[in-house]
Amino acid sequence: MPVSSESQAGFLSRRHFFRWTGSLAAALGAAPLVSSAQSLSSATVSSDGEDYYDKLGVTKIINAAGTYTTLTAACMPPEVLVAVQKSALHPVRLRELQQKAGEYIARRLKCEGAVVTSGASGAISLATAACMQYANNIDILDMPQAIDGKKNQVIVQRAHRYEYDRAMYLCGARVTEVVTLDEYKRACAAGNAVMTNFFNAAEDEDGIAGSAQIGREEWLKVAHDYKIPCHLDAAADMPPISNLWKYTGMGFDLVAFSGGKGMRGPQNAGLLLGRKVLTDLAQENNNPGEGIGRGMKVAKEQIVGMVAAVDWVLAHTEESMQGDYQKRADLIASAMKGIPSVRTETVVPRIANHVPHLLIRFDPAVTGVTTAQVVAALRKGTPSIELNPNTGQKPNQGIPADANTLVVGVWMLQPGEDVIVGQRIRAALTKQA
Ligand SMILES: *Cc1c(COP(=O)(O)O)cnc(C)c1O
């Protein structure tokens, strides 16, 4: 096993980890259950457990892409996994767990209220449901069907429209699209808005509005003049770690984060943070009630896993987290040394996926291989490797790629995989693969 640049290399190996958690399960109180439940357990399962990917014939990949849901995004770190495993051993009262997890997360992330959701998309739905109720004084059962004649508009800048608008439509909400500040003020004054939605990554880091005309501060001020709550979608926007309290601190009433991206919680978890009056309403609409959140169930394992992920994030500093990612990028870059025409550089998108990405630029006339051939060779080999989808594409979301540029997303690599990715890209570019 090659030595990884990863600081996590010092953690338990996967095999040791499962052995350890196996004995942990016994120590935790599974033992008294064994006598009565023995008939349900199988003597043929090894202590490491069966590998169901192998059993199903599903290809395990190295994720050199990033936090993409289609690639199952983040893997939980050992500290989070062990918390999930422990939580699975005991039933609890769900509402008590939701309440105490919410209070703990709110305290740690410096906001009034928090809900563990099924993901950022689920958080947007629950935020909309909360704001619909807040504005209309309606029952949770009135959504989405009985909203006629009620306030139901969410105000959004045209440049902030996206596929997650559907998470709001789910509650019966409709979007009022605005471009100019005047249009925005008129939409707020119309009196039928329940909420505004701000897509955080659509705006530049220094407060410039990007292709939209209205920046965060002004957006908040106008809505709050009309007492309209503001939701901000920051799903992919940790790191920096401080973003977890920056936007609630600025005055956004509700903020959504994905749990299974940079936070490395369970992939089917997320956070809705903000003003307690609204997070309480969001919770009312959440499973196990009968509101729109009933189908967005978050089990005890994901709730505990998300709490542990918050602890995991806060156990890092910005420097330790980004330094780790930079080391991986440097190690892969060093594996490219001496390949004719190859140049490497690291870029960090300003908002969303704000981590070092390695760009490997080359001249196919010199290497004799094209981007498509490299991508295919990496996919076909064992283990199969997925590069970042910006590979071979035009500049996009802060990643200045082009047709002859490979993009390596390093932050979802598991310990030791940076070495493998470096070797395999080198082999592909030098036609050894
Ligand atoms: C990923 C993402 C979401 C959805 O997050 P999930 O946790 O997968 O539900 C929503 N909004 C933005 C901007 C995202 O990047």
**Major beta sheet, specifics?**
7 strands, mixed
Strand order of the largest sheet: 2-8-7-6-5-3-4
CATH classification, class level of the largest domain: Alpha Beta
Q: Please identify the structural class as seen in this structure.
A: alpha/beta
Total helical segments: 15
**Name of the CATH architecture of the largest domain:** 3-Layer(aba) Sandwich
Provide mean pLDDT, rounded: 90
Order of helices and strands: HHEHHEHEHEHEHEHEEHHHEEHHEEH
Summarize the structure in words.
It is a single chain. With 433 residues, the protein is α/β, with parallel strands linked by helices. It folds into two domains: 91-316, Type I PLP-dependent aspartate aminotransferase-like (Major domain) (Aspartate Aminotransferase, domain 2, 3-Layer(aba) Sandwich); 323-429, Alpha-Beta Complex (Aspartate Aminotransferase, domain 1). The protein contains 15 helices and twelve strands. It has helices at residues 14-37, 52-56, 78-87, 94-108, 120-136, 166-169, 181-189, 216-225, 243-250, 276-285, 300-314, 318-334, 364-367, 371-380, 417-429; strands at 61-64, 113-117, 153-157, 174-178, 193-199, 230-233, 254-258, 270-274, 343-347, 357-361, 384-387, 405-409. 44% of the residues are buried. Mean pLDDT is 90; it is low at 1-22 and 24-35. It binds pyridoxal-5'-phosphate (PLP). Residues 69, 119-121, 164, 201, 233, 235-236, 258, 260, 270 line the site of pyridoxal-5'-phosphate.
